[in-house]
Amino acid sequence: MSTEALIKATALNRYYGKYHAVKDVHLTIQKGEVLGLLGPNGAGKSSTMQMLTGNLSPSSGEIIINGVSLIDEPETAKSSIGYLPEQPPVYRDMTPREYLAYCAALHDVAKAQRKAVVDEAMDRCGLHAVPDQLIGNLSKGYQQRVGIAQAILHKPDVVILDEPTVGLDPIQIRQIRELIRELGNDHSVILSTHILPEVQAVCDRVQIIHQGQTVFADSFSAMAHSERASELIVSFSQSIDKNKLDSIDGVASVEALENNQFLLKGAKNESQQINPADIFKLAVANNWELTELTPKTETLEQIFMNLVHTDSDVHFGSDPDSYPVAKAEADAVWTNYE
Length: 338
Known about the structure:
The protein is α/β, with parallel strands linked by helices and 338 residues long. The protein has two domains: 5-220, 3-Layer(aba) Sandwich (Rossmann fold); 224-295, Alpha-Beta Plaits (2-Layer Sandwich), CATH 3.30.70. The chain has helices spanning 45-52, 74-78, 96-106, 114-124, 140-152, 170-186, 196-202, 220-230, 242-246, 276-285, 300-308, 324-337; strands at residues 5-16, 19-30, 34-38, 60-65, 68-69, 81-84, 158-162, 188-193, 205-210, 213-219, 231-236, 251-256, 261-266, 290-295. It has a six-stranded mixed beta sheet with strand order 6-7-8-3-9-10, sandwiched between helices. A four-stranded antiparallel beta sheet has the order 2-1-4-5. Strands 12-13-11-14 form a four-stranded antiparallel beta sheet. InterPro entries: AAA+_ATPase, ABC_transporter-like_ATP-bd, P-loop_NTPase. Belongs to the ABC transporter superfamily.
């Protein structure tokens, strides 16, 4: 994977009236990377995506697309982006072939090349079975495919997909996920979703947004390495001296569980993390029978729930501040009216 940043967003903020919907969000995506933008409904994902695609102006912040400022040179910057909003922007009274030819003209694809460009996009998105059927008569899954085809038609460097599998059946979801993985071979992809398995299935890296702010960002490979190194569960067939486990290099704390099982937590400093070989040596030296030595892993679901699931997330009451999204929209309308 290249270290070249195709999108670099710095300190993005977005207000709707007085409501601060997106708060100082930073985001980068490298060439050949699939980034999962994860968060509960109302977290600010769609507003962030709309700012990244130039469909919504940030209240403050900077967005650089393939080296070009989206704010200063929007047309040039947008030429590097393909975008599928949550509702596919398709014309139901057109066929996929007609619609994609129309999109190719909008992207200034040379007339002589349009047929080849449309055929390639249709082939990549599995539309060869329905090229001349009305889009309005197609299943939701095929309509999503048409939406993705228009996003990749002009061969953009970055493809941005907002909730691409919402409303699809399990078979359609699997097909769209496979397509997204394939797109990651030739494009950088940002996938916005509130569905955790979606991120785990197709993404290289995850960024969690909650209440308009980034609360977690890491790659799955780094998460796995950190989990293996920082916490270990060990079990023995007999009672042991817990204090001796404390003496192992890199062990910050030892928690006794049950049935001679212990949770060893490592130091945050990577150079001082637990070496499993030291546990084996200690067991042999003390004639302990070691029956288990496994990393204690924290799943993405656990991370997500720990970060975003609080009782204060949902309010139902008479106070208008209990409805932040509705209040934001009302404030925005009132501001425009004034």
